[in-house]
Amino acid sequence: MSRRVPIESQRVDAPLTQSATFLVLSVTDAPDAISTVRSTLASIDDLAKNVSIRDLNASFACTVGIGSDVWDLVTGLPRPAELHPFPAVTGAVHTAISTAGDLLFHIRAERRDLCFEFERQLMDRLGSAVAVVDETVGFRYFDVRDLLGFVDGTANPVGPAVPASILVAEEDPSAAGGSYIVVQKYVHDLKAWRALRAEQQEAIIGRTKFDNVELDDAAAGQRSHKTLATIEDESGTEHEILRDNMPFGSPGSGEFGTYFIGYARRLWVIERMLQRMFVGDPPGFHDRLLDFSSPLTGTTFFAPSASLLAGLSDG
Question: Does residue 24 contact residue 126 with C-beta atoms inside 8 Å?
Answer without folding.
Answer: no
